Amino acid sequence: MRSYLPDYELVTPANLSEALALLARQPGAWKPFAGGTDLMVLLEAGKLPHKKFFSLWHLEELKDIAVADDAVVLGALTTYTEVLNHPVLQKEFPLLCQAARQTGGVATQNRGTLGGNIANASPAADSSPALLVYDAELELVSARGTRSLPYHRFHLGYKVMDLQPDELIRAIRLPRVHKPRVQYYRKVGTRRAQAISKVVFAGVAEMAGGGVRDVRIALGSVAPTVLRCGQTEEAVRGQRIDSQTIKRAQAALAGEIAPIDDIRSTRRYRRQVSLRLLADFLQRCAGSVQG
Amino acid sequence: MPEDGRKVTVTCKVNGLERTLRVYPLARLLDVLREELHLTGTKEGCGEGECGACSVLLNGQLANSCLIPALQADKAEIATIEGLASPDCLHEVQQAFIEAGGAQCGICTPGMIVAAVNLLARIPQPTEGEIRFGLAGNLCRCTGYMKIFQAVVRACRRQRERVSA
Amino acid sequence: MPRVIGQPVPRKEARDKVTGQARYVDDLSFPGMLRGVTVRSTCPRARIKKIHFDASIPWDEFVIVTAKDIPGKNCVTLLLEDQPCLADTVINHPEEPVVLLAHADKYLLEEARRAVWIEVEPLPAVLTLEDSLARKEIIWGADNVLKAIHLEKGNVDEVWSQADFIVEGEYETGAQEQLYIEPNGMVAVANPQEGVTVWGSMQCPYYVHRALVPLFGLPENKVRVIQVETGGGFGGKEEYPSMIAAHAALLAWKSGRPVKIVYDRAEDMAATTKRHPSRTRHRTAVSKEGRLLGMEIEFVLDGGAYATLSAVVLSRGTIHAAGPYLCPNVRVRSRAMATNTPPQGAFRGFGAPQSTFALERHLNKVAQAVGLPPEELRRRNFLREGETTATGQVIREKVALADLLARALELSDYHAKLKRFAAENATRQEKKGIGFATFMHGAGFTGSGEKYLASVVGVEATPEGRVRILTASTEIGQGTNTILCQIAAETLGLELERVEMAAPDTAAVPNSGPTVASRTCMIVGKLVESAALALKQTLEGSGFLPRQYSQQEFGEACRRYMEKFGPLRTYSQYQLPPEIQWDEENYKGDAYGAYAWAAYVAEVTVDSLTCEVRVDDFVAVQEVGRVVNPVLAAGQIEGGVAQGIGYALYENVVWQEGRMMNNQMTNYIMPTSMDVPRIRVYFEEIPYARGPAGAKGLGELPLDGTAPAIANAIENATGVAVDRLPVLPEHLLDLLEASRA
Question: Could you report the predicted ipTM of this complex, rounded to two decimals?
Fold first, then answer.
């Protein structure tokens, strides 16, 4: 333990409104602490500069997966284990379940939460690309009230978020789509389990009339934030998938991503694999039309 | 430097015994178990939730105790390797690890056994894929995992025999 | 009648391990114990100007030790005396220990560690093998060469003109971290009255003892070293524990209180030894029939900043460089070079995995050049009984390599798969491949090593009528406790429960040599066998033990003997068998008493989108003499293969300015339960005359052949030659794109 533990505080608000009141009293002074799978690692390494935290883990208002006709709403404290065991998510949002299944091991899946993962704002987050292609919306709460924000507008830069110091992520809303879609997820990690991603690719497409009617593409680990790739989507939307479309889409993607060299992989590898996974996704889309 | 100022009282049940502790709120559950309660069967291999040597059951769920702040263990039920067996009767999984050669250096073994017990509680008859997935958060550098898989298979065969008997 | 040898008896300490009762170093606590930490250098090479202690810390509460506090000689005594225990005037690598601190509060201790600043004047550093070879700076000795070896057989200079083919190749391997799951640690009690006692995680109690004696300037009987349960070693706890023991003891000496130092994972990975990175160049002359005519090999290791064990790692790597093949003309020139990185050290295989990787890759290239299948090329060159190795050692045992290879190929369905994969790969995104390696590993210390070690093992009767083995050979997970007890039980005709191990405590057990070099079973086990035999003969000679005896009669005989004569203890010391001759000067003769032989086959899938490689099946066939315990032996091979898979595909040390940058388990990637295939292990048993009940050594063997088998399989799947370890997807992607261009 490289941190000086006596300097750190963790308090337990009784309920959500008490937590929000704590945030409102001194915005920025207290930070939320969910399952601890990221913050405890930093604490151990002596790399947790902030010292005052409040625990969310027991707050019932942030738990529960609610299924409505138009959307599934996941409380911010929904764990990966809860995600991957949920029948509606398995059926309608398989990419999120795949991401959850490939995050850490069982113990991490029991403690890691969707809200915590979003707020940790890692560009390598496994579930974020899935949330992006499902058009997730965040429900943000503060003592001032509640606002809703499309998830793709949430991450503004490396660890910079559209989240006020007095706000908490309360829930993640996934709109339900009952049309058939091609769904594609691929995590390229350092190994087959307990891995941090080198590239994460998620894609969802609705095919019609031999072409792509609508499409969502998002990647992780290739930019300062997880990335919804609007220009790449634009290059594909309304198109028939052939080698020309794939080339155009790849060119667009190459312009959107900004991968780097780090201890886990290289810029070059991330770029090439991103382009290859895009082509693979688009070929699957084309295959679904023929099949 | 504050002496005890920021310490909090945490009450939890460890291996069935009620415990009340004065600890720093962000103290790692791992350190609380090892240093305050002298339950040294739970091991530290990495301190970052990667190796699983510190696995315990927290309210029945598998958890890396190095990543659990003590305050979040308040009112919880915790089971460690020491709670699995009575002095004269081993848990089926422990017995299977002995027979199959699932333990070599032994440092990952307590965590691995806790994870295996948790796996069999969730999935009584796991496939090989489910065993691999269920233990993927517990790293072993000695065995290459083969004898660990065999131990789990052996243990669930025993469980099945016991239940049907 | 053999009853215990060959049986899959459970390990002796299994119950303690599965219940969490086994006590490792971090589980120890003493009244009044302090915690210790090490303040380390951050730069690769510098002169120390001043050490600053920030005023924010109550330093008067701390025990502070620098080089000036060392009572004796400031060095970690091992082979050469070049490595200081604490850097005094110069720093030669990042993570070099400079200051030691102790305090009862472990949290405050970390604050204090951050508050020490070592002011330095940087010196130019050598960070790569190439720069060291080019003598960009001289950082060690006269020429940066930690050790050079020259091995000659026949006359390689004359073969090139007769060769039908000359094949060249260059091969590289990276550093590999041992990654035992228990980090290093020591507890020390030390004062001028009682001397120094340390308890800790280690492989070699007498290495630690040898280092502490001159450090404190104490007589040998004032230093006591006790190994406690050790959570894996793999070579990583061969030499560095001496450093940590020294540090804990220095803090204890100065404070007068017990001191515990246990590294966290980040410190353990950054500061302690790893497998030596290597570069090997091959030039091979071969006839059109595929006979090896001449091999010229240049083998270079990166040893890091100090000599540590590099000379002996280089030696084993050199001797294994020409492999289990008959070649009349061989030259190996080897060098271990100094760089300003933390010293590299022992790791299971000890130089042989590096040179074996190079050779087993290279022979596939040779086979291609000659136009033979790789298995046929090897078959035509396998060493046979009566033939000589590269050092001129005449092999006096049956070499079953051709049989081992045939069996491995059959078990893996090699030929059918080769055909099927070739047909299917053309249309598949996932390319499958199969490959193999054939290899050997010498058991015991190299050359005259065992003669100089002159190891001793004792066996004593206990008042309860049991037998206790006295040895400094340690249990580190590999099964020492169990197999040595099996050997003694077999020799004495006793039930296994009647034989126990004494704790490895230098005050109580003789020096049986280090627990390394695949020597515990073959060398130490043989000493156990002969000491046990001597005990039996003593009992028989005393008249208390009948020719045929029951368990009870044996116990009774011990009791009666001890009543009449006092303690019953017999010892056995290693004697070099007369047929073993070694010329260290010219690197000629019997390099090892015996070799284990093996053929490994790997089947892989390469995802051509991501270039990720998965091992789908693994067959390991070996001949290791008599197998003492089939479950433990298979466990050794399976674990070694898994480490070899890591070495081949995942385990990459990222260096920057001589420092390891990925010193976390999250970023240094070892295989999980999802990353290993089914590992299928088979033993052929040809008893070795000088091994206990016919056993040889096997612990290191699996590290030698796993990585080249996988690399050969990747070549089969993709058509590109992978000559560098680890085969990361990043590297493979570049190779595949280059091959297409």
Answer: 0.98
